Amino acid sequence: IAAAVEIWARGPAALPPPREPRTPVLPVEGERNVLITSALPYVNNVPHLGNIIGCVLSADTFARYSRLRGWNTLFVCGTDEYGTATETRALQEGLSPRQLCDRYHALHADIYAWFRISFDHFGRTTTPQQTSIAQDIFQRLLARGFLLQDTLEQLRCERCGRYLADRFVEGTCPSCGYGEARGDQCDRCGKLINAVELQNPQCKLCRGTPVVTPTQHLFLDLPKLEGQLEAWLERTWAAGEWTANARHITRTWLRDGLKPRCITRDLTWGTPVPLDGFRDKVFYVWFDAPIGYLSITANYTEHWERWWKNPQQ
Questions:
Q1: Is the dihedral of CA 48, 54, 59, 65 positive or negative?
Q2: Maximum CA pair distance of the chain?
Q3: Using an 8 Å Cβ cutoff, are 141 and 147 in contact?
Q4: Residue 293 and residue 310: Cα distance in Å, rounded?
Q5: Same domain, 106 and 136
Q6: Same domain assignment for residues 134 and 199
Q7: Cβ atoms within 10 Å, residue 20
Q8: Shared domain check, 99 and 43
Q9: Total domain count for the chain?
Q10: Distance CA 182, CA 135 (A)
Q11: pLDDT of the chain along its 313 residues, tens only?
Q12: Is residue 253 part of a domain?
């Protein structure tokens, strides 16, 4: 406190000169290097104040603080563009998913610029770099035995002639009875569910009643990772940097035991699965979207690995 009072009394002239901006911003040996990301806003709608306040404003505030401290700071974000919500909205607006994403990406970028959010780079997840990095991670998981192949019971709408991905289905939650639960999660109780578990399911496209049909999919073998994950969590929980809510949800998943998680979908709008027998499928958005942080950085600089694979700096 005494040091802060002294610096305040000396005024702005006592501050070190502002850091000269570099392009691109890359980690520097011997300096404090700070990489800041905020939750990737989904691209199927106009952003609202909740999007601003809930993620990008807090990250922007910290980015400005970091730069004022003279830290070497990179702040990246971008629009999350794959997934069934995009397909659903595109159908509603009579556009292709690409056309819809182009429209809303530009709109998001303009709004954040109006708010003067100080991104070093605002990108998107529908890029060649996203495909390359996501498929590379998939191939590494496959080579190391962390993927399973299994038959999934999936809802198919005969009237539409298509398998229905999670968000193309609505019904009653089998856990709490909420009547508008999605095919991947109930927004009332938060329970993760499979679409076939829904009671009274309906196709969101035609409101017909879908039928359960078997289809082959790939799964991330989470039980194989459970021991390593639990040990890592215990170490990071001890550091005290997790919120109480994050700890509670994670402990609940571990208490019940991790289950294999499906990472493929019967869709066309997404990152293609590079494996024979599955080339008509794409990656599930929750496998694909977090990789967007890496690919957006890769679109900013070809040296993106210096930020993402460089714990020493």
A1: positive
A2: 75
A3: yes
A4: 15
A5: yes
A6: no
A7: 5
A8: yes
A9: 2
A10: 27
A11: 998 898 889 988 877 777 787 899 999 999 999 999 999 999 988 888 888 888 899 999 999 999 988 999 999 999 999 988 888 789 889 999 999 999 999 999 999 999 999 999 999 999 999 999 999 999 999 999 999 999 988 888 888 888 887 778 889 999 899 988 988 888 888 888 888 889 999 888 788 889 888 889 999 999 999 999 999 999 999 888 889 999 999 998 898 899 999 999 888 899 999 999 999 899 998 899 999 999 999 999 999 999 999 988 8
A12: no
* Element of type H or E holding 180: none
- Is residue 253 a contact partner of residue 259, using CB atoms and an 8 Å limit? no
Q: Which domain holds residue 302?
A: 22-140+285-309
Phi, psi of 76 (to 5 degrees): -120, 150
- pTM to 2 decimal places: 0.83
Examine residue 146 and state whether it is found in any structural domain, yes or no: no
Q: What are the structure tokens assigned to 232, written together?
A: 């890592």
Does residue 28 sit in the same domain as residue 124?
Answer: yes
Q: Cα–Cα distance between 187 and 203 in angstroms, integer?
A: 18
> Would you say 160 and 204 are in contact if contact means Cβ atoms under 8 Å apart?
no
> Interior CA angle at 25 toward 299 and 104, to 5°?
40
Question: What residues contact residue 199 under an 8 Å CB cut-off, 6+ apart?
Answer: 171, 172, 173, 174
First to last CA, the chain: 29
Any residues with CB less than 8 A from the CB of 283 and at least 6 apart, and which?
A: 82, 134, 138, 263, 264, 265, 270, 271, 273
Distance CA 231, CA 211 (A): 42
Token couple for 6: 């002294």
